[in-house]
Protein 1
Amino acid sequence: MTAPIISLKDISKLYGFGDATTVALDEVSLTIEAGEFVGVMGASGCGKSTLMNVIGLLDKPTHGEYMLRRRSVSKLRGTQRAKIRRDTVGFIFQSFNLLPKMTVLENVALPLSYKGVSVSRRLRQASNMLERVGLQDREYYYPPQLSGGQAQSVAIARALVNEPDIIIADEPTGNLDSASSRLVMELLSEVHKTGHTILFVTHNPELTRYATRVVYMHDGGIIHDEATKLGEVAATAREVMYNISATTEEDDLEGVSALMKAVPNGTTRPRGRKPNKTKKGKESKKAKSSDARKIASIDL
């Protein structure tokens, strides 16, 4: 059996000291197999971005063990982490983070400059990547001349140019309209089909249609983890979406924009306890329904 590409065991991340200490991640354990498309949901401040930063080697955990492709990376020095991050992980951000005074082609080629790739070769690779995302005709445009969807597609091309194994997308559609959001998620779906492992943070339950698995977070911990079918909204996200009365069209589209602000006592399964199972070994429908009702009853 092959080892997971990502393995976190009892990972915690603390900020501050003494009475001012904030627990951003609380003993998180998570394994992700190569080729998974994982969505991460939860309220603002629940630890989603911190988890992505730890997995992407932008931040070091305070406690716990992180294995990346069978290598322990929890305590590596900064230069070692930077090299592994450069060669293994591609990042896509909500705000695109394109450099406005560089052309689209130069933005996409930028990561290759840190690997010592010659100018002609990195521009050629960047051009090929822009063709892959359908924007080769925008090579000499500048970021301010692009639409939101185009800018995010350029950011995806930049994330892919180093041919990383893992793509981390933190709210990749957060600044986009619905049409641009679909364009970006379809593009990520195509990237996933080529064998990349993708993790994306979202507040929108509709986007779980693209995931093979969805993880739900609250107060720095993972409280629910479910496999999903491509093309279908994740079961828990769907239950929440249809049990919350939305007052505006935007609320309805966003669904669970703050999925878990407060979890009543007893709503989460204690760590280590296995889910209720039927004789066939599957989690019972009654248990699933109960969990969904409890999450749906959260005060948003």
Protein 2
Amino acid sequence: MNKYKQRGKKYIYSPKSKEPFRISRFGMETFLECPRCFYLDRRLGLDRPGLPGWPLNDAVDHLLKNEFDLLRKNGQKHSLMEKYKI
């Protein structure tokens, strides 16, 4: 039987365990950055919150790509390209 509760590839600390709890270098860096985040991760199994996505930027990129692909397919220039002589 495994001495630690396994969550994915991470191990959750159990105070009832008699064996030492191994911590990686990354785990030590996490502790030095934010002891609270380290505790929440290794003791309670909660990951750090991720960064927010960029849905507006992604949507604009997608729309512009589609518009330019369609114009390129039809052999046309975008009106802004004609206006600024690009």
Protein 3
Amino acid sequence: MSNKKLSDKNEEQEEKVVKEMSFLDHLEVLRWHLIRSTVAIMVGAVAAFSFKKILFDKILLAPAKTDFITYKYLCELGEKINSPDLCIKELPFTIISNSMAGQFTTHIWVSFIAGLIIAFPYILWEVWSFISPALYKKERRMATVFIVISSLLFFLGVLFGYYIISPLSVQFLVGYNVSSQVINYIPLSSYFSVLKQAVLASAIMFELPVVIYFLSKLGLVSPQFMRTYRKHAIIVILIIAAIITPPDIVSQIIVSIPVMILYEVSIFISSAIYKKRELTESSEITEN
């Protein structure tokens, strides 16, 4: 028996085992994947909780200071293009805790979100491990590629949200005032809510190529469909950008540009999948 036939036979046997698993068996497998993912998140959360000074003073509260790296680059850009308004000289607000357990509760929730971000590659591995038995052998070999690319896009989204969206949001929202008599005393939870929304929304948006890849594999999205509705997609992207950024056109454009680039990359990915599918179908017809 040739190696190809032997491989096909083993693949069929594996698929048969998966199909023979009952619904309760699948639930039991899923339960353990969820337990391991939760443990990974908690380990990351405990690590983040332990490094409180670095997590808060060096990272999360950095966009609230005028010496934040993004503000420095904006100031340098303002000097080059002769636009002094880009230089942030002050951020007129004070962060306060307005409840007894406010700081402790915030510490726990922020640590949990940090744990989720840290454990994201492992969570992807657990997701892949759960769905891989239902895939063909050649598709299961893509586990490393899937995890690396998805993790890379996720962390790029996190960095984009932290270094671009967060400081733009903070600068605009605290700089906007209805009267000089109003002083900004921002609750701790409100400040971190802005950061969380910016970072997680960006991370999710940057996963667009991965989502399009799987939708194209399932035949739910085609490159022709994406090209036809490109204008509609741009409008949706602008709406999402308006939701996660301050209501000024410059910030929305800055956020929209990388997402639009990812959309074009997604069209290329979808096109490659459909071309490969057409070649496979044509070769099967030729063989028959």
